[in-house]
Write a structure and sequence with these properties.
- This protein is an alpha/beta fold.
- It has two domains: 29-121; 146-278, 3-Layer(aba) Sandwich (Cytidine Deaminase, domain 2).
- It has helices at residues 56-66, 89-92, 102-111, 129-132, 148-161, 163-168, 192-205, 224-233, 246-255; strands at 5-14, 17-26, 29-36, 44-51, 76-80, 95-100, 116-117, 146-147, 172-177, 183-189, 215-218, 237-240, 258-264, 267-272, 277-278.
- Strands 10-9-11-12-13-14 form a six-stranded mixed beta sheet, with helices on both faces. Strands 5-6-3-4-7 form a five-stranded mixed beta sheet.
């Protein structure tokens, strides 16, 4: 799984009094994603993303799915660490090689980047609603309905399950809930987009998409890319403890996603498709 937290000595000042004490930090390390054809000898670097180690295979699968590179489960032949013994173990732990079917590899080569994605960066290659909702793409039409009381309960349930956040205060969480408010799956990462990619990637690898009867709660801001990832996963209700962006609201409206923001302290705003939120 890799280290997700680290201990460091800090100088803490409170009310003018300085105290040396240990502190727990969330780990941030690069993950280099390489792509190749199945059985191919060489692999080309697709992108390097900053992440918290753990669930790396899910992160890669979720990211490639959100980018539109993977459209079917059989397009991903394997996800492996480099086998070359000349590569140091620490480096191997921060590299994953995706073996892709020819059509998926061609898509990856068309989007290949030479930059490093920060932990706050999402799917940077898709920035317009028209590129997400291409011609013929239908908005989500789930009949899922949830109550305001159920929504009020979700942030506490997410926080209670965030074990690394409890130690560090530095990780975002993405939680998948069913219609009764039961937490089905949780992923944490220093990047809010990464947490969602890990969550969606886990279900994509298991062949469990679309998630048309589920809700997604994120601990950070609901940006355009988070709404896009929810749409690709077929999630009809997306809630955030913070604010959405204007483009996120526009995409949610067009994509048929119920978008909830500022879900905290027994209040929230519904920005799109309020029909799925039942009245008291």
């Amino acid at each position: 799984m890799g280290r997700r937290s680290d201990r460091r000595r800090v100088l803490r000042l409170r009310d003018g009094v300085a105290t040396a004490r240990p502190d727990t930090l969330a780990v941030e390390e690069p993950l280099e994603i390489r792509v190749r054809s199945p059985g191919g000898a060489g692999a080309a670097r697709f992108v390097t993303t900053m992440r918290t180690p753990g669930h790396d295979e899910e992160l890669v699968a979720g990211l490639l799915f959100a980018e539109g590179i993977l459209t079917a489960r059989d397009e991903l032949a394997a996800l492996e660490r480099p086998a070359d013994p000349r590569i140091e173990a620490e480096l191997r732990a921060n590299v994953l090689v995706a073996s892709l079917a020819p059509q998926a590899l061609a898509r990856a080569q068309g989007l290949q980047r030479s930059t490093v994605m920060g932990s706050a960066c999402g799917v940077c290659g898709r920035t317009e609603i028209g590129r997400v909702l291409t011609e013929g793409t239908r908005p989500l039409d789930s009949a899922l309905s949830v109550s305001g009381e159920l929504l009020h309960a979700l942030p506490a349930r997410l926080r209670e399950s965030q074990s690394v956040f409890a130690r560090t205060g530095g990780l975002h969480g993405a939680g998948l809930f069913d219609a009764s408010g039961r937490l089905l799956e949780l992923r944490e990462d220093i990047g809010r987009h990464n947490a969602v990619d890990k969550l969606v990637g886990a279900h994509w690898l298991a062949g469990k998409l679309p998630l048309s009867e589920c809700l997604l709660l994120v601990s950070g801001r609901a940006g355009f890319e988070i709404v896009q990832k929810a749409f690709f996963a077929g999630i009809p209700v997306l809630a955030s403890v913070s604010a959405p962006s204007s483009l996120a609201v526009e995409l949610a409206e067009a994509a048929g996603i119920t978008l909830v923001g500022f879900l905290r302290e027994r209040r929230f705003n519904v920005y799109a498709h309020s029909r799925r939120i039942s009245a008291p």
